[in-house]
C-alpha cells in the first residue's frame, strides 16, 4: 500500500473515493461541509432524512456528487465530536476502512485533517491511519484452496492536519504502516496450524527475516547445542515430540556494538497438548496459538528494522512442541535448568515457564538493559483480564510503569499484577529447588514468580498474553498483540 499526504479541498482530489466524517445528529465536519456546499447539498440532503445520523461507526456511500472529482464520497459516522477519544478515533478509521475494503477501487482519500483527538497529536493520528489500513487488509489464506478476494485499494492519502508539517506526517504514515505489517506478521504466524508452524518452521522464518534486513542476524540453536548449554528445562518440554526444539536468537543492530541491548523473549510452544498432563479435548485446537509470544517477537523485530530505531534489540524464542510420548517428561520428574536450579515438574502442562526459564538465563549473556518476556502462559490470565488486557508482572516498577504508559498510548494495554514475596513459597518443592506449579490459586502470579527466579540479574517484565493474543469463537484468530505495545516501548527508549 502507498501512503501520502494530499493537500487541497476534498472535492478537488482525484481519487476513487473520498471519505469524510459526519458527527452526531448529522453535524458536518469541515471537509464534509466543503463537499456539501459544492455538490448541491448532497450530504445534508441525506443527513436531513435521518437515514444517516453520524453515529460512531456508521457508513454511507454517495455516488456522483456534482462538483466532486471523486466518483464516491464515503460518509463515516464519528459520534460525539467533543473530546474525541483515541479509541473512538480508531473506530472511525476502522469503519471507514471496512467500507472501503468492500469496494472495487484503487485510490482513497481520507479527508480527516481537522479531526482533533483528545490527548493525541496529529502525528499519532496519521500513524494510526496507516496502521489500521494495514491491519484491516489482513486475510488468512494460507491453508485455503479458495483464497479470499484480493483487495483492490493500492493507495491511501490523508489531508494534513492544520499546521501539521507535511514531512513529519508522511513519516508517521510510513511508521504506522510498519507497525501494522508487524502486527499482521504476528497474526500470520499465530494463525498457521501446528502441523505447518513447527519449531523448525519458526526458525526458517527468523532466518528469512535476517535475509531481508541487513540490520538483523539470526542464530538457531539445535537440541544438541542446547544440551551442551545445559538447557535441561526447555528440552524436557520437547522430549515427547518428534519435532526438534529450536532456540531462535534474532539480533537487531541499530546502535553501536557497545550499546547494551533490550531483550524480548517469546514463548514459542507451537502446539501445547499439555504433555502427559494431557489437556481436555474441547478447544484444544486453540493451543496452536501457544506460540503467539514468539510471533509477537518476530513481528516486533520486523517492525523495528523497518523503522530503523536507534537501539540494539535481541529477540530470543524458545520454540518447542509439547507432546505426550514414551520419552515425554512425567509428573514428578526433576530437571536441571541452565541456571543450575533444579525443577520438579509437577504438571507437564505448565510447560511455558520451563521453556522461558532457560531462555531467560540465556539472555544474561547480552547484559541487557531490560528483558521482556511475552507468553501465552496461564489460563488464569484469561480468567482475570478477559481478552482486553495484557497481564504485566515485573521486578522493576519503573519498567512496569513505562509499559503501562506505552500500552495506553498505542491502545494495546497492559495492567500490572503484584508479585509480592508471599507468593514465592507456593513454589516450594520437597524434591527440587523449585516446583513448576504453585497450586490452583493466583496462577498468573505464581507463574511469574517462577520466572522471576531466573530473571534476578536484570530488569525484567513479563507479559502474560493468554487472553489478548487471539480471539475464540466466530472471530477465531490471532490478534497480533502485543506487537504495538512492544514497538511503542522500544521507541520510547533512549538511544
Ligand atoms: N498455554 C497454556 C495457557 C493457556 C491456557 C493459554 C488456556 C490460553 C488459554 C499453558 O501452557 C498452560 O497450560 N497453563 C496451565 C498452567 C497450570 C497447569 C499451572 C493453565 O493455565 O491451566
Ligand atoms: Mn500448557
Ligand atoms: Zn502452553
Entry keywords:
2 domains; 14 helices; single chain; Leucine Aminopeptidase, subunit E, domain 1; 34% helix; 495 residues; Aminopeptidase; binds manganese (II) ion; binds zinc ion; binds ligand BES; elongated; alpha/beta; eight-stranded mixed beta sheet; seven-stranded mixed beta sheet
Q: Mind explaining what this structure looks like?
A:
- With 495 residues, the chain is of the alpha/beta class.
- It is built from 14 helices and 20 strands.
- Helix 10 (352-363) runs parallel beside helix 13 (443-452).
Quick overview of this protein structure:
With 495 residues, the protein is an alpha/beta fold. The protein has 14 helices and 20 strands. The strands form 4 sheets. It has an 8-stranded mixed β-sheet, sandwiched between helices. Strands 1, 2, 3, 4, 5, 6 and 7 form a 7-stranded mixed β-sheet that branches.
Strand order of the largest sheet: 8-9-11-10-14-18-15-16
Helical fraction equals 25-40%
Number of strands: 20
N-to-C CA distance: 30 Å
Question: Approximately how much beta-strand content do the residues carry?
Answer: 15-25%
Bound molecules: ligand BES, manganese (II) ion, zinc ion
SS-based class: alpha/beta
- Distinct helical segment count: 14
CATH architecture of the largest domain: 3-Layer(aba) Sandwich
Radius of gyration: 24 Å
Number of domains: 2
- The top level CATH class name of the largest domain: Alpha Beta
CATH topology descriptor of the largest domain: Aminopeptidase
pLDDT below 50 for ≥5 consecutive residues: which ranges? none
What would you call the shape?
Answer: elongated
The mean pLDDT is: 98
CATH superfamily of the largest domain: Zn peptidases
